[in-house]
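Hey team,

Filing this mostly as a record. A colleague (T.K.) asked me to run one chain through the structure pipeline before their review meeting, and I want the input and output archived in the tracker in case anyone asks later how it was produced. No errors, nothing strange. Just documentation.

Input sequence:
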Amino acid sequence: MAGHDTTSSLFRQLQCCVIVPTYNNSGTLGKVLDSLLRQTDQVIVVNDGSTDNTRQVLENFPSIRVVSYTRNRGKGFALRTGFDAATKLGYEYAISIDSDGQHLPEDMRALLEKVSTEPGALLVGSRNLDKEGIPKGTTFGNRFSNFWMWVETGLRLPDTQSGFRLYPLRRMEGLRFFTDRFEFEIEVLVRAAWKGIRILPVPVEVHYPPKTERISHFRPYKDFARISLLNAVLTILALLIVRPFLFIRSLDKENIRIFYRKYLLSPDETNFKKAASIGMGISIGILPIWGWQIATAIAASYFLKLNKVLTVVASNISIPPMIPFILYGSYALGGVLQGTPTEPADEIRYTLEFVKQNLVQYLIGAIALSIAAGLLTMLVTWLMLALFRKNPDATEPPGLSDTGETDLI
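Output structure:
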């Protein structure tokens, strides 16, 4: 009882509730709610259009707040409905827990204690997927999801498919989502990371009932296709817009100083390798592969054994403010190489017909400009390093410690 009192007081202290989305899980829902009420009475159930006897089960729990609607809309929609209800009731945090009995309500205390020391974080219950009894499809799907999470946000998380989470409702206000079903749990992590919300894993236990007792509404082919499509869209947005924007936003004076000392003046690589890395990044950033510059820079730096950070940072030359200059420069250089007249920038009308007529000129100029700019940048960087990197054998640049370093990409 003492443990219950402590957990219940944490819920009240942190203004946290539990959201239980459910769809045709009446066989396990009652047990889950009984277990939850032994931890807290701050529970919201979202009945996502169930057609079994879920409504009758819920009638046995009059103290629980229930939100219902008649048509099944999907787990993502149910969670968003729960978020809205919790926010209107004044909650700051919400723990989501599935109604199939795989999550242990006792683990909620670990989430509460973690957010007490990491306020405003989004916590993901990290399951041990190597233990016996875990479905192989779950393990594969989780690794697949973890990889794309890293591509889209740069974060490495051990269990991005866990539905056992603690959401910071106030920090998430203003986020807009376009998915309603299982893929929502991927989208919400990515969008939260893009907003700057810390996402932290918390180890939890998991229980998978026998197949005869377990009800899963995941449709392997249809839902996996939806998840794959979502990851494709998020990856394009991340590489084309979000990652460059976050890079620009990180460029304050202190971050620039740290980056300069750590990556340009560090003694672990030659001046030529550093210069070649920056030149390659500039070249890739100008190439007409819009949206794929960062991915290409990562691949090129890996295969050519260049400095990955310098290459990727330099490839961000294709940030939105620079795009008009790169486009016109490519177009103008293509005209010079083809011996065709080039209209002044202020007289160009960027219509579809203009693009069709001048596409070849632009492509030729873009490739030539990328090569020329890359070589010129490499030469200038090499000369600058030769002048200012006086002591390449030093063990560590003065004034730089291991604390407070900021990753710029």
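Quick notes for T.K.: The mean pLDDT is 82. Residues 171 and 354 are 45 Å apart (CA to CA).
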